[in-house]
Amino acid sequence: MRAPRPLLAYGNGRSYGDVCLNDQGTLLQTRQLDRFISFDPCAGLLRCESGVTLNEIFQLIVPHGWFLPSTPGTRYVTLGGALANDIHGKNHHAAGCFGHHVTAFELIRSTGEMLLCKPDLNSEMFQATVGGLGLTGLISWVEIKLLPVQNPWMWVESHRFSNLEQFWLLNKEAERNWPYTVAWIDCLASGHSRGRGILFAGKHAANQTQLPAYQEGSLKVPFDPPLSLINGLSLRSFNALYYRQPVKPQGSLCHYEPYFYPLDKIQHWNRIYGHKGFYQYQCVLPPAVAQDATAELLVAIAKSGQGSFLAVLKTFGERASVGMLSFARPGATLALDFPNRGAKTLHLFNQLDAIVSAAGGALYPAKDARMPASLFQSGYPDWERFAGFIDPEFSSHFWQRVTK
Amino acid sequence: MNSLNRIVIFGATSSIAEHTVRQLVQRGASVYCVGRNADKLATILADLKVRAGAGQIIDGIDADLTDSTQHPALIAQATTALNGLDGVLIAHGSLPDQKACEADTNLTLQEMQTNALSVINLLTLLANQFEAQGKGVIAVISSVAGDRGRQSNYVYGAAKGMVTLFMQGLRNRLTPAGVDVVTIKPGFVDTPMTAGLDKSGPLWAKPEQIAQGIINAMAKGKNEVYLPGFWRLLMLIIRHIPEFIFKRMSL
Prior knowledge:
Number of helices of chain B: 9
Oligomer: heterodimer
Number of helices of chain A: 12
Distance between the termini of chain A: 30 Å
Shape of chain B: globular
Largest sheet of chain A: 8 strands, antiparallel
Structural class of chain A: alpha+beta
Shape of chain A: globular
Order of helices and strands of chain B: EHEHEHEHHEHEHEHH
Distance between the termini of chain B: 38 Å
Structural class of chain B: alpha/beta
Radius of gyration of chain A: 21 Å
Radius of gyration of chain B: 18 Å
């Protein structure tokens, strides 16, 4: 029996939208491709099948003194997914995207052809597949160059800033001195405190004579509450309290798990939004207009009264991404989670789209479930060239939506 | 409690066995893997070598276990490679196409050879070796299907039932010698063997979960374990449905 076409690889399902969905065709579940192929603990070179999760990689490499050179906000994504979305982390300004650290991968096309791709071998297919949203074929294995670390700990400083202007100053300074920077902002604050928040700057900890003990606790949201627990009242209180948390400008040790993956501690955290779920809105804004456009976005959000308790602001570095469809590019990126309130939320997104579009920015496919085709096409000018590399038997719900 | 430091696995390329051997290696065990598909076995051995620490032996060989004449040599090779055996896990098998078996006596007998007779041949040889060494654990993956014959899969069920009954007798024989004989009865497990089945519903388990149960049962020297545990109750009910009713049911 021939499986219905088109095909699409599906890893651990952690994308927030429909890049990993394919409701007309067949999903190729890759989680059983979970084997390590080779690991050189001297050179820090790891090759494994594409369904291995970053969590499984960390368990193997951290005790050997290695770390992933680029990691997103959850470690429960697969290696293939990280490549296909060309994910970025808090260290983009220092280390680029995931794709910059990929030394090789194998792509299986629907013809049965197995293509070995490296930055300098089948290089166009390499550039199409990195950030290519799984459309160029099935990624069977990936090889990456790891980052050496001394131990599993981070040295982290946190600084409070009382508005957006202060953020830009503080961030510029932090970027020069720290490999990891990210800021949480209170998107409900307005007036003089618009854009207030906390900047977290981190680096891998130096050798320690005595490491603290660490045990990750595990919490679980057991079921969908009938209504979203994220509402105007809870948001305002959360944001006000979070902003007032004790900051540690003098720095302290923090284990890498809570530093990089605070939400991984809470299984099924998405359930707090109730059965209607949430949308994430993540955009990138070019450097010249980033400051003004960010302020405009915050004004529009505050005015709508719909807020996000996870509002994250970060600047990307200058390094150009490898992939034709890579999201990360010089500028600032703002990411916000909104409970799904139907038409009201979509209306706000249309307003935000107008600001992003006027600024010449783009939205992140991995986080998107609703961007209009026009915004995708203006944000990814290489999309037509990319389309030439798509496997004729592969497609996704996302791709059909944004190329209509 | 049994120590599980030197384990031979027959049918190591089955999904349940692969996850079990992975967890054994994580516990520091040396392992010898026998599997039918040479490419798949090589992939698994490479993976285990990445996971293993210094000093752990990761070895194996590809072999067709339906050929019983090879069994003595395979057991000897594993014993030599690991410098003795603490335990064995027999995991090979196939899921027969019941309808095809009904139409083909050769196929039916061939499935019996794969799922029952080859296992019994291995068990007979291993039993003597373990009895002589006076310790260790022999585990076999049987199935809940072996608890009662049903029209939808009685060829598989009869083969697994034979293995379960053989293991019972072997347990009775080897207990005085200090050898644990463990029968594993998994329910529905999401593996390539069950690829053709509809896997929605609450009865399906993941192979890594079953693997954990197998290691626990081997370490503790349990007799018969249902994995996950709720199958014990389910099969208790199924076994006690009177035959005059059962024979009219569509199961």
